[in-house]
Amino acid sequence: MSSTNLNRDSIQDAFLATKTRLMENRRVRFLLSPGLGLVWTLVFLLIPLTIIVAFSFFRSGDGTTIIYELTFENYLRFIDGTVYQRIIVRSFGIGVLTTLIVLPLGYTLGYFIGRSKSKWTPILLGLVVVQFWVPLVIRTYAWITILGREGVVNNFLMWTGLVAEPLQLLYTTHGMLLGLIVSILPFMVLPVYASVSTIDEEIIQAAKTMGASDIRAFVEVTLPLTWPGVVSGILFTFILSAGAFIAPELLGGSSDRLIAPVIATVFMQDFNWPFAAALSLIYVLLIGLVLYLFTRKADLEEALEGASL
Amino acid sequence: MKSEWNWRAIKGMSLLIYLSMLIPLAVIVINSFNPQRIAGFPPESLSLHWYGEFFNNELFIDAVVVSIKVGIASALLCGAIGTVTAMGFVRKQFPIKNALVIVLLTPMLVPPVIIGVAATVFFVEIGWNRSIWWIVVMHTLIALPYAFLIVRSRLFLFNTTLEDAAMTLGADRLTTFREVTFPIISPAILTAMVLAFVISFGEFTATQFWVHRETTTVPIVIYSMARTLITPEVNVLATLVLVVTIVVPLVALVIQQRLSVNRT
Amino acid sequence: MSFLEINSLRKVFGDTVAVDDVSLTVEEGDFITVVGPSGCGKTTTLLNVAGLQAPTSGSIELKGRDLTDLPAYKRDIGVVFQDYALFPHKTVAENIAFGLKMRGESQSKRDEVVEEMLSMIDLEGYEDVYPHQCSGGEQQRVAVARALAFDPDLVLMDEPLSNLDKKLRQSLRTELKRIQRETGVTTIYVTHNQTEALSMGDKIAVMNNGNLEQFADPKLAYEKPASPFVANFLGQSSRIDGTLRTDSAPHVQLENGAILEVDVREGFDDGDAVAVFLRNELVSVTENQPADVNAFTGRVAEVDYQGRDVIYYVTVPDLDVTVQVSGDGRGTVYEAGKKVWLSIAPEDVIYTASEGRTGDQKHAAVQTSVGAQ
């Protein structure tokens, strides 16, 4: 082989190698692209949210029309009237209240499943996971059949003779809270279960050998170790209950109009898109504030991960 | 040792919670077999009467078809986008990655009502006519964080030496993905897709902004019936959905177990 | 031109220099062991040769072909990974045949090779078994078969025995050597285990801090270490610093004036600062003063009884060190506090330049071997 040939061969080899590498990289870059999900989120959520900001400074005209001129009227309407302020306060109040009730209940069940080491454990866990799968509408609708005038509870109470007249259970704040709590419970149970089940029983026994009582061992060992699960549960419980739509609408009374249904009404029935946009923005900023306070105490990403079990 | 007394209290409380979660669902199922129009409880007799009525009602059947179509489309999109995105986030290094993860997860944080409002305004403003695709792209958005997180956590556990091994054996990157990476993470992708389907199938709050007469989904039908007049067919619909939403993931779980037997 | 040439390989990660100017030449059919402590750059070197990492600078040539810019999948280099990296979703047969499949070989050809390989690694009938159903030792052999099945030019092994228990490690060591002998494939074997490195390698490359300290025949590296590091790393020994004197009877003068007679090593001159290494097993320990030239008295500070052997830590005032000595565990075992005599023959005293490498061993050592002494 002459040296020229060899030279040409090696140049060709090098060229081919570079070419394949480039081609391959292009295909691979697509596979590894972190951008696809980001673009989806940007286009279908972040840009729409930005447009909402703009809309909140427009004015609603006759019928479904919108007058595209800068105005603060939507925000003034919120600030001047106490109606919408009260709705927001009430929504966040329901959020806090639900969280306070769901936390101990959900923790108890999560702890129970995590600690019950038997052949039933997968079933116990499965019954909670299944709650996630059944549409929220159905789980909430079910309470109508339970709490209604002709519902299971009233029929039972009348049959026993404990009450003469059916009780008003449906369309009350208590009814709404009941539906809300039960439907949100899995969001607390699962993260707590996940962190409880990873605790080595020996660690707790070790605490007890060192003289800790049951309660002491729980407070000193179990609780801190399950804290990440609790934090995740609290985050979801609060966001979901403060923004609840179905439970207040299907089970709550007339005083239980929370912010989510109110925004929907303003948007879909009053066709006042600018005002709905302003309310949405106020609501989302308040949620953002809560999240900001949350991130100062806990890791947001970790908490969100807790929900993807 | 668990202290007996404490443990009994925990057990009792747990039982109550289970009952509160399961009794309402059981009542729906039982009521769906109650031939009475105004269903008393417990029913005096059982029949399939309302099932017959249900399958003759186009409104219900159409909603089921729409929900299944949307669910499958969103599941496929979430599986693809979630996998590609998770691959990118796990395997690539780029600036402000941690902040971008939070961006990806925002659909979990923004209340669905606001997602509903914002997307509607956006689609109307860009002149995109209301169609089933509104629901598909938006359900994909809503379920994407979950799909992403599931695939990502699988990828974190993935031993990249397997890919190195494949390449030393002569597989280029694409072949390596097809032959090694994908088969091994596929159970996680399946989980992500099933979850996306379930989320899509059950989404109500945001979806109510996007439906129209032809694209009404199951939750919308049940909600509007529950708001106005409850016909007994709703119990049938709810029961069928209950069965579907429990059976589909369970079947997926079984398939996944089969897949994972040799792949762990 | 040699079979494999690694020229001035350098790999930098951020501020860390993982491999710093390593050059190595391997002849066809050689079994090379690369040994060094963790973090010495041995695995990085291997990954660069495999094409799984790109060198910062330097080049790699195999059979006269420059591999430096070639992706891993075009290099025809088989790799056995530390954790085996068997594909969990593929059967043993599919794992072994993977390289052939990638090369477009027919199913019948693949089946044939798989059968051949399985018989070579003594796992006939394992075709349809999944890796997780195999024991650690079986997985290890499958990994070796997979790396060999496509008839690579070179096989790299990255600590392939480190995840196995001691007994299995020993039997597989012999097994690997046998397979290498049978196939004749050029092999580079990375390990942190000096016994493996010494026993398996036709040549041994000792690395430290990203540098190649010595590349030589194992016996040469053990007996004539090129640097204090090599002397210290291979075998158990005690180090004493001193000055070489060759004017009269060759000896090393220690700082406190004591004298240790030695043989003269090529490349050393009178007055060189040297590090002396007393190999545990080459120092004899006796109760009475021996007649040897290098005899020192000391006191047993600690006794580490290990059955057949016993390790003494003997404080020797003359040498100002505590010397580790291997004794015979079957005879009388001295107790701590006992006064004993240590002695070592001059030809058994190992020494190197007290800093860095002796001469330019990086390149010089390549040409040396025991036969050439």
From TrEMBL, chain A:
It is found in: Cell membrane. Coiled coil: none annotated. Residues 88-294 form the ABC transmembrane type-1 domain. The keyword Oxidoreductase does not apply. It holds the Pfam family BPD_transp_1. It is a multi-pass membrane protein. The chain crosses the membrane at residues 30-58, 87-112, 124-144, 176-196, 217-247, 275-294. Keywords: Cell membrane, Membrane, Transmembrane, Transmembrane helix, Transport. Gene3D superfamilies: MetI-like. GO terms for biological process: transmembrane transport. GO terms for cellular component: plasma membrane. Belongs to the binding-protein-dependent transport system permease family. CysTW subfamily. This is ABC transporter permease. It comes from Natronosalvus hydrolyticus.
Automatic annotation (TrEMBL), chain B:
It is found in: Cell inner membrane; Cell membrane. Keywords: Cell inner membrane, Cell membrane, Membrane, Transmembrane, Transmembrane helix, Transport. The chain crosses the membrane at residues 12-33, 59-87, 99-126, 132-151, 180-201, 234-255. The keyword Transport applies. Its main location: membrane. Residues 64-252 form the ABC transmembrane type-1 domain. InterPro entries: MetI-like (IPR000515), MetI-like_sf (IPR035906). It holds the Pfam family BPD_transp_1. GO terms for biological process: transmembrane transport. SUPFAM superfamilies: MetI-like. It is a multi-pass membrane protein. GO terms for cellular component: plasma membrane. The keyword Lyase does not apply. Belongs to the binding-protein-dependent transport system permease family. This is ABC transporter permease.
TrEMBL record, chain C:
Its main location: membrane. Keywords: ATP-binding, Molybdenum, Nucleotide-binding, Transport. It catalyses: tungstate(in) + ATP + H2O = tungstate(out) + ADP + phosphate + H(+). The keyword Nucleotide-binding applies. It is a peripheral membrane protein. It comes from the Archaea. Residues 4-234 form the ABC transporter domain. Its EC number is 7.3.2.6. GO terms for cellular component: ATP-binding cassette (ABC) transporter complex. Pfam families: ABC_tran (PF00005), TOBE_2 (PF08402). GO terms for molecular function: ABC-type tungstate transporter activity; ATP binding; ATP hydrolysis activity. InterPro entries: AAA+_ATPase, ABC_SmlMolc_Importer, ABC_transporter-like_ATP-bd, ABC_transporter-like_CS, Mo/tungstate-bd_C_term_dom, P-loop_NTPase, Transp-assoc_OB_typ2. It is found in: Cell membrane. Belongs to the ABC transporter superfamily. Sulfate/tungstate importer (TC 3.A.1.6) family. The complex is composed of two ATP-binding proteins (WtpC), two transmembrane proteins (WtpB) and a solute-binding protein (WtpA). Part of the ABC transporter complex WtpABC involved in molybdate/tungstate import. Responsible for energy coupling to the transport system. This is Molybdate/tungstate import ATP-binding protein WtpC. It comes from Natronosalvus hydrolyticus.
